[in-house]
Amino acid sequence: MPTPDDPFAVMRMSDVSRIVSAALAPVVLINGAAILLSGFSAKYSAVSAQMRDLAREWRATGYAERRASLRRQLGLFDTRLRALWLANVLLTLALIAFVGTVFAVALAARAGRLDLFGAALLGVGLLLSGAAAVMVAVELRLARRTSAIELEDVLAPTAPGSPEPAAEELHQ
């Protein structure tokens, strides 16, 4: 293994495999975080499209009760998008930390010592990933509230004089 006295010494195969092994764990985290980030981004796009559809419906409807329901839902959709945006940012930062971990671990292994910086980057990446997961859980809770508002609107008693929906219409 190269030393400060002889930086050009040839590395043994066991040294190379130790470096590769040390760098492999963060690489797996990079792949997992990238897959999650792709899913979070797709979810953000879907929620954004749903929000635009609700806004279009809000503009088109003349019923005050429906507009009030849509307004409440739009407020929740805005909060959901903020949560998903934050989850995306946190996971992107986690990816950056995991990539930094790979470099720090590889350099530390080459020097033959444990690198505190690499361990700190790994810890930061894991914390950021956990925070992103919490934000997605928050968004899921808000999605449930949005669904509850919509069900409340659909299942509410109809106004006097308007036709009552058939029971089978409510459960389709």
Question: What this model shows, in words?
Answer:
By secondary structure, this protein is mainly alpha-helical. It has one domain. Helices cover 81% and strands 0% of the residues. The chain contains four helices and no strands. α1 packs antiparallel against α2 and α2 runs antiparallel to α3. The mean pLDDT is 82.
Short description:
The protein is mostly helical. Helix content is 81%, strand content 0%.
Percentage of residues in strands: under 5%
Contiguous low-pLDDT stretches (5 residues minimum) are none
pLDDT averaged residue by residue: 82
Count of helices?
Answer: 4
- What gap, in angstroms, lies between the N and C termini? 70 Å
Number of separate domains: 1
Number-wise, the strands total 0
Overall structural class, as computed from helix and strand content, comes to: mainly alpha
Radius of gyration: 26 Å
Fraction of residues in helices?
Answer: over 70%
Q: Shape, please?
A: rod-shaped
The main β sheet shows up as: none
Written as H for each helix and E for each strand, in order along the chain, the element string is HHHH
